[in-house]
């Protein structure tokens, strides 16, 4: 049970990391323009 919950939680940090990287990318693009 513990391992299953760990695998499930490990997915969220990846999604958050992708969202934050996309957000920072858009901010950089806006600043360049």
Task: Explain what the structure shows.
The chain is built from 1 helix and no strands. By secondary structure, the protein is mostly helical. It is rod-shaped and about 45 Å long.
Describe the global form: rod-shaped
Number of strands: 0
Structural class, from secondary structure content?
Answer: mainly alpha
Order of SSEs, N→C? H
For the structure shown, list the relevant keywords:
mainly alpha
Short description:
This protein has one helix and no strands. It is an all-alpha fold.
Secondary-structure topology with pairs:
Blueprint: H1 2-32
